[in-house]
Amino acid sequence: MLKERWNELADVKDELANRDWFMGTSGNLAIKVSDHPLHFLVTASGKDKRKRTDEDFLLVDEFGHPVEQTHLKPSAETLLHVEIYRKTNAGCSLHVHTIDNNVISEIYGDQGEVTFKGQELIKAFDMWEEDATLKIPIIHNYAHIPTLASKFSEHISGDTGAILIRNHGITVWGRTALEAKKILEASEFLFRYQLRLLEQKSYQII
After folding, report:
1. Is there a contact between 187 and 127 (Cβ–Cβ < 8 Å)?
2. CA–CA gap between residue 154 and residue 141 (Å, rounded)
3. Beta-strand (E) ranges in 66-132?
4. What is the mean pLDDT of residues 18-43?
5. The whole model's pTM is what?
6. Contact 104, 195 (CB under 8 A)
7. Residue-wise burial string across 135-172, b where 16 or more C-beta atoms lie within 10 A, e elsewhere
8. What is the pLDDT of residues 180-204, one digit of tens each?
């Protein structure tokens, strides 16, 4: 099971790296290995995610601590993944920093959320109604990770979801790695669409 989950997460990492979503070693990924006890693989801190090595991930427990003795350090935002797995049945969670999600989080940060309606890719969030409205929360980028994790946890509901951290990045989760990746891709599509729409509106005003 551990090897299967490792390879599954490594494949996701490779695909996201090809999209250039891991600038400056940023971002982190996690995948659940067991429920009882809660163990999951998470990216090791400071690694070049464009490369595939035997030290890309390490196994951590329900507190985000390494299960075995290792020189590797869990990603700084491991506690965000801990909150997701404690509160949901999610099996995979992904965190990336992109220009689009950072700009969106700054534009709508004071509102505390960004809203999308009438977009086909909302269906990636299991929202199938014709008039469905998707709201992605935006939280403050607390430097103190336990505080960030606590504020992050307040917006976790359901086995799938997405939360923006202002000028930091997006964290998404799903029941499987494929579902989490689908939600991430849909979110990034919606962000880019919204920015293009705002750009066109500004041209019309001029």
Report:
1. no
2. 14
3. 92-96, 113-117
4. 95
5. 0.94
6. yes
7. ebbbbeebeeeeebbebbbebbeebbbbbbbbebbbbb
8. 999 999 999 999 999 999 988 766 6
